[in-house]
Each structure stands twice: as structure tokens, then as C-alpha cells.
Amino acid sequence: xxxxxxxxxxxxxxxLKAILDSxxxxxxxxxxxxxxxxxxxxxxxxxxxxxxxxxALVLMEQSKQLVEFCLELQLGYHVQAQFVLEKDFxxxxxxxEENGYLxxxxxxxxxxxxxxxxxxxxxxxVAATTCARSLxxxxxxxxxxxxxxxxxxxxxxxxxxxxxxxxxxxxxxYISSENFVEGVYQSIKNKQIDEFKAQFHDLDLLLVDDIQxxxxxxxxxxxxxxxxxxxxxxxxxxxxxADKSPNDIDGxxxxxxxxxxxxxxxxxxxxxxxxxxxxxxxxxANNVSFTQDIDEEVLxxxxxxxxxxxxxxxxxxxxxxxxxxxxxNESRITLKVAVEALKDLIAANxxxxxxxxxxxxxxxxxxxxxxxxxxxKNRTKNIAGARHIAMYLCRKILDAPYKEIGKEFGxxxxxxxMNACVKVEKNIKTNSLxxxxxxxxEAKIKINPQ
Length: 450
Ligand code: ADP
Ligand code: MG
Prior knowledge:
By secondary structure, this protein is an alpha/beta fold. It folds into four domains: 3-86, 2-Layer Sandwich (GMP Synthetase, Chain A, domain 3); 122-267, 3-Layer(aba) Sandwich (Rossmann fold), CATH 3.40.50.300; 273-352, Helicase, Ruva Protein, domain 3; 356-447, DnaA protein, C-terminal DNA-binding domain (Chromosomal Replication Initiator Protein Dnaa, Chain: A), CATH 1.10.1750. It is 59% helix and 10% strand. The protein contains 21 helices and ten strands. It has helices at 3-21, 27-34, 54-62, 64-75, 86-98, 122-133, 152-166, 177-189, 193-198, 218-233, 254-261, 273-285, 296-306, 310-326, 335-351, 356-367, 371-375, 381-398, 402-408, 414-430, 432-447; strands at 38-42, 46-51, 80-85, 142-146, 172-176, 205-209, 237-242, 264-268, 293-294, 332-333. The strands form three sheets. Strands 5-6-7-4-8 form a five-stranded parallel beta sheet, with helices on both faces. Helix 16 packs antiparallel against helix 18 and helix 20 (414-430) packs across helix 21. Residues 92-101 have low confidence and may be disordered. Bound molecules: adenosine-5'-diphosphate and magnesium ion.
């Protein structure tokens, strides 16, 4: 079993448990049809669920909303569930390996029309629309980078969809760099490198998503560079996304960085409040399932807490919808209902932002000491006690390795950190006042990770 399979298995096992716990399905149906299913693939926004029989597939389709909701509970973001029969799943896999490596498929749901533009993404939006209008003429390559969930993949597909709509004969390819790496690997294995490269020949538009995954892979670099150079010199428009700027991606070859820098590099930043709010309003307006009115302060609550990632906004709205079914006799969704419905999601989202620095800051402010004192050799009871709690919380909340924590606390070695954690754990068990202090600090970090 590969690591990926193991991860998928774990996600699916928890999803099945959530489905069972929801009591929305008869236990018999669950046992007969759901228990032998598994997660075959998980992409950014698509989960492929493999079913052993047609009857299972039908029941899954009928329970699609429930499955998607329970998957989302595990992932923290929304994915679309697609159900396939086991035999089709495997034959599909084979033909992918045997035949094309490229996916020409564009997601029709990602268009410029449903992309909300604000200060944080307006430059990327202008550059993308310009590329779509004047292929290969102005910004080539176009490189869009930024954190996850800020609309990079959406913009890439929007460029493709616009080009396709204006000229269906244009040759467009969309590929994630993971698929590119896989394609290179397969083509080397099958001694078909030239055939692999030939697929890119003649393209009018190449869209490459998440290029950071080719970093550090020499053979892939070499093939990508050769494909890329041919395309650019043939005036094919190339649009690329990544999580960082070309200069900041570790393991990307100098010559590729320099080629990327000859085009236009644009950053998408975290969304500002107004853009998040507009996105929420647009998503609600497009979702017919919401029948109740939603208080304005609910929208503002989601916009304030989820602006780092539009996927979290989408997750929050789905969860609210699911929750509101329970409150369907009330005419409005109030802030109280929303806070209850979203508490886990928002806490998890805030946690994603916690760092060792933030844990240190919270502990220092609780004890009224400076960061310098916290990491110093000072053994005064108050300071050493605060230090131990800070180390313990770095371990508990962030699951940071002992070694890394030690480095951040005045270059102490890992056994010092381990001892501190053991000491705190022991104190928590034996002293309820002490336990309350640690819980208070922990709650402060979780509620306000800044
Ligand atoms: P990234 O590729 O940056 O990780 P995605 O493009 O996959 O992010 O976006 C995640 C989700 O958020 C998608 O469903 C996308 O449609 C939506 N989204 C992101 N930005 C916007 C936006 N400005 N307007 C509307 N939807 C957006
Ligand atoms: Mg993406």
C-alpha cells in the first residue's frame, strides 16, 4: 500500500463513520452497499469513490450530498464526489497510462463570469483575461502564484474556457504538474519520451497547474524545459500557477526560473474582507438550496474568519446549509446558529495559521515576560514555568518535532524539550489550577491565532 493509498483509506474510513453516525441512511443499506466502497482518487476539488456493484453506485448517487458533506468534515474543504464502478475505475486507469498523459479537460464551472474580483486578485484577473484575449502576444509565460484556495486553478480554467468559447478549434491543454511528472515517469519507463513531448506540439494554450511539484526532479525539469521552450518560440501561450514565486520555489532550476521571469509574474494575495463578502454573496445567490434568510452578521462572521482560503468559505456555506436543515422551522439563520454550525471549521482554520512564534507570543503576554526572557537561560520559576508551557503547547497544538522546538527556544536540545513536556503533563494531571492556566492559554491561541 502506498502512502497516498493509506491517506485515502484513512479519510474514507472516517467519512464512512460520519455517514453512519449521521443516521440519514438505514444501517442495513449502509452495511450492504457502503461498507465495501473506497476512495480511489482525491484531487483538489474531486473525490472519486469506487463502488463494487451497480446497486451501491445508485445508492451512493442518491446520497451524494451526504457523502460530500461527510467528506468535507474530514477535509475541511468541499469536494465534488464522483462514483464509479470498480471495473471502470481500473480500466480508466490503465488507458490513462497506455494512452495520453495529458488532460485536455477544462472545468466548465470555472469561468471569468463567476470569478469575483477584488484588490487582492485584480492584477491576476486582468493578466488572465488579457492572455485569453491575445494568446501568446503579451504576457508569455504568465505565472500566477499565491497561497492555496485563492483562485489560481479557477483562473487557469477560466482562461481555457474563454479561449475555447471564442474559438473551439484552438488546441488547449490543462495539466497539473503532478500529472506531468507522472507522464514523464511513464514515458521514460515505456521508452516513449518523444511521443510524450509530441503531445504538446501544436498547442495554442498550455495551462500548467501547481508547477512547484516539478521542483527537484531533474529529468522532469529537462523535459519540461524543452517542451516549454518549443512552445514559447512557437508563440503558444503558457500560463502557470504555483504556491510561491519562481525565485522562492526550492529546487527549481536557474534556467527555468529565468525563463519564467521573462514573462509576467503575478501574486494573488489573501482576500480582503469586502472581496470575501462578495464571494459569499455570489455563492449564496447561486445556491438554490438556501431557503432561509441569513442575517448580515453571519456573512460578516464568515468573511472575517475564512478570508485566507475561498475553499474554507465554500466549506462554511455547505456546512451552514446542512445545519440549517435542522433549524428549518426558523425563518432566519442567525449568528448564534452559524457560530454553533461552524465552530470546528473555524477553529481548525484559525489553527492552520498558528506558528511557534504565535504560541510564544501568547505565553509571553499571559505571563507578562518578553520573548527574550522566554528563550533565555533564566531559570526563575515564573520564566522557566512559562517556557515549559510554551514548549508543551508547541508540541500539543502544532505537533512540532522536539528538535525544532528546542531550536526555537534558545537552541536547547530535544531531551530538554521532552522533559519540559513531561513536567507540564504531570502538573496538569495533579494540579487543577495549573491545568486551567494551560487551557486558558491554549484557548487564547486557538481563538485568536494572530
Ligand atoms: P487555488 O488553485 O489557488 O488553490 P482554486 O482556484 O482551486 O484555488 O479555488 C478554490 C475554490 O474557491 C474554487 O471552488 C474556486 O472556484 C473558488 N474561488 C477562488 N477564488 C474565487 C473568486 N475570486 N471568486 C469566486 N470563486 C473563487
Ligand atoms: Mg489550485
